[in-house]
Design brief:
Rossmann fold; 7-stranded mixed β-sheet; 2 domains; globular; 33% helix; 8 helices; alpha/beta; homotetramer; 4-stranded antiparallel β-sheet; Alpha-Beta Plaits
Chain lengths: 284, 284, 284, 284
């Protein structure tokens, strides 16, 4: 099975970046199998993502990184190089709604995700059996109102212990403390059950029902300190009508939520999502 | 060409309404070609819309109305009966963006609307030639900031003179004064260029672009005194990405706006939209 | 928890059906909570579905059936009455692809289906552990090429033994013999992985890829003797582009397939699908 | 207003193409504002499209072409360079349905198309007044069954006289003779009113209605000698149900057709569509 070196770059826009980077890769005999570029003309910033067939380059990832360093410095790049054999480790956090977790577990076992779910943390014990059936550890960390700080200390310890690259809030229903938002900035993905910025906060389907909207939605975004306000990765909607009760909206919502979260996570794990300020570039 | 008597009812929900109404119609030999019903269990309210082949009943609309009156009283109904030969008269109000008007004029001439556009009012003179080419009167009523009251007096006079049943704000870009909102309650349809309640107010595409959303939308709603807050008739969205500038969003938006407005207006003219509080029942 | 009597009718169209049926129900004090009607003007046929609050009628389902019999005869109705406490029994048949089964099992456990999965039959043994974890029996019935007749005899025996009302071919990948198609006419639901009638038969995603289509689809339909030609219940599509390999199409397809099958099955179990010739009326 | 040099390339895939091309552009000081690349791994073919700010290069398009020639030869490229100041000339052909033409005329006047409609040819005289109101010449070329060859001779003469780069069959309803298909290969765009390959040929909405499909579609494709079988540029669908008559399908279809044709034509005019065999690469 071939593996790839994946180069992701964001830098001030100027002439010659593509020529320099592609020239560098060609100079090492590299074969580019997928290339994405974007110039944000307003922000004056350039984004790129290259997938290079590892066997076409006679270097390890570490050697390639070292060789690329001067190019990166020349163009003042934020950049990363990943060997796709190094699969990201994902911790999923859930509360009582299982639809997103069930969906992610299926996609993981079906080989749809370029990464591995390594454990599940929940403030309830409901999904233990299902998770353990998949051969994964399940951690029940209750989050009582007067004990949040200790609880999130334990969550942090578990995330570290599992060496998670990415944390997915798959309908976790608890607000992460600022400390975790900051420590794992750009690495925590949440699914919010509305079409943000509509209906931020609690009970979005009931808000939507009472406003009489004709579409409900879901939003996958990075978690930041400000609730439901982080960079949006993906959104989608489902059509509703006067026939539908709030319960129907919840049911439709589950389908949108899991689809949107799965796409967002997939793109994140494939290094297709580049954050810039409060927005994302998604090379889907 | 057959015509229909269209009966639209909203009343407190209780047993036997359908039996009473359908019995009444059957008793007069009426043939029902389309029937829609909805019980709003939360609100305890019942909604129905019947389309009756006029030739199957040996009565004029006025006679049928009179005959139905006791049934309506019995169930405390808000109701209306319309002979579809009496086509609603529509006045369109526009500002400088022509996409919605062009679309509505096409649909009218193609016979897609159960009603007739009878005139266009604008605060600019830009679309006169196009409108007049369609054989319609065009009224230019400027709305200078210090002259709004007189301007809207003139708008009101024109709407009355044209005997409009429905007024469509097809990107009119001016806020109707409370007096008109009230006088024409349930008869003025607006297209707002966002997925309400997101991005109410001015420049929604710029708001959407700066929030980095992945979908933009449009909302067709009845106009009420509170800006962009009236009962929603229809909504739809268009997918966008980091590639798209605010100008692209405007362009995509035009397509969504005209589609959403055309659907909303069509349903309104076919008596498919029943208002209840700040929501609608749409028998689409 | 309230239960309902659900009345589903199809009959030659003529005046007075609604009045007669709703009058009958009102006469027994019945409260109708959901009503759907459709006149197929081309075919001259009328379809209806009523949901009646059981507690509002002082009769058992059997008594109501007997009382309704004369009405049904008068209008030459095909009809059925179901007490929603009697939940339909569903047998799922699968081959090696698990996505549809995983999805149906989730929906069943989440209470989204108005029926119960009572067992799984497969020509492979791969999904035994997952199915048994859900507390359901799993039957492995191999279908070797020279042994099909006996294998399908065994399938038929199992379906009978489990007293299945509905059989779902959730990517079963085997063609049912005519005998079973006929015996279970209108009760076997298949998911085909293309937008029928495009790409009937084998390997639809490869057919789609090689034709260069920009959308792929899935179709949920009743099984008839003619392959992939039975009455269609539901269809949906997913957008694809030149970037996507046949493997990507397979992956997107899985999402469409499970969504379309779930909707189709849900509607079938709620008696929302009425078959007429090779078409369906779906009161969704 | 800035203009661009747009370089479109298709060639056998091998290492170093991007480096060579981007190096060439950087070497001439060129600033790339949009870049798209695609490797078709099955076909072993590489596709690219670069948009270069003309002012960033001190050369005319002709000089740049000459300078690029050796690079193109080295990599055996099919290629084209276009100065975006040279706007493509579009001839639209219609029959009796006006929706696509009305839509294209609006988009042209609104500045949505990177090209100019220069004239309309029709086998009927119905749309003359509307077309002439837009300031465009209208040619009525009747196509009687026993006179087709002479009629298409006249069509060809007009297309030449108007110096058309692109011919759009906007519901033209006549089959172009092989001679024209061949002469204008890759330059004639058709809108077919079904989701091809379903329902090729005549009266697709009636075919769709009688098959009982739940979605209808439209397909924008290049015209080849084989009817409705050319490379597909774009497709989309509209949801339908048992409620809808063939007339409703026709009405919904109009909306899909014009949207799909407008997208397809827009991409074609922006050099975003690269044909390869019977498929397209669309850098949308």
């Amino acid at each position: 099975m071939s593996h790839y070196y994946r180069l992701v770059v964001s830098c001030p826009d100027r002439r010659g970046i593509v020529a320099r980077v592609s020239g560098f890769i060609a100079g090492h005999g590299g074969s580019i199998t997928e290339a994405n570029q974007h110039s944000d003309l307003e922000a004056g910033r350039f984004f790129m993502r290259y997938e290079i067939l590892a066997d076409s380059i006679g270097m390890t990832a570490a050697e390639l990184e070292e060789a690329f360093e001067p190019v990166a410095r020349e163009f003042d790049m934020d950049w990363a190089l990943r060997d796709t054999r190094r699969r990201p480790r994902v911790v999923v956090m859930v509360s009582r709604e299982s639809h997103c977790l069930v969906d992610l577990l299926y996609r993981w076992t079906a080989g749809e995700l370029e990464g591995d779910i390594v454990g599940v943390i929940s403030n309830h014990d409901d999904m233990r059996s299902m998770v353990e059936w998949h051969g994964l550890p399940y951690y029940h960390v209750a989050v009582p109102a007067d004990y949040k700080s200790a609880a999130f200390g334990e969550v942090e310890r578990l995330v570290e212990e599992m060496e998670a690259d990415t944390v997915v809030l798959a309908r976790y229903m608890q607000i992460l403390p600022p400390r975790l938002c900051e420590r794992y900035a750009g690495r925590v993905i949440n699914i919010h059950h509305s079409f943000l910025p509509s209906f931020a906060g609690a009970r979005p389907y009931h808000q939507a029902h009472s406003r009489g909207v004709k579409l409900i939605g879901a939003t996958c975004h990075y978690v930041t300190e400000e609730l439901d306000a982080g960079p949006i990765i993906e959104q989608d909607i489902h059509r509703v009508s006067h026939c539908h009760t709030p319960q129907d909206l919840v049911r439709f919502g589950r389908d949108v939520e899991k689809a949107v979260l799965a796409r967002g996570l997939r793109w994140h794990l494939e290094d297709r999502v580049l954050i810039h300020g409060n927005k994302t570039v998604v090379f889907a």
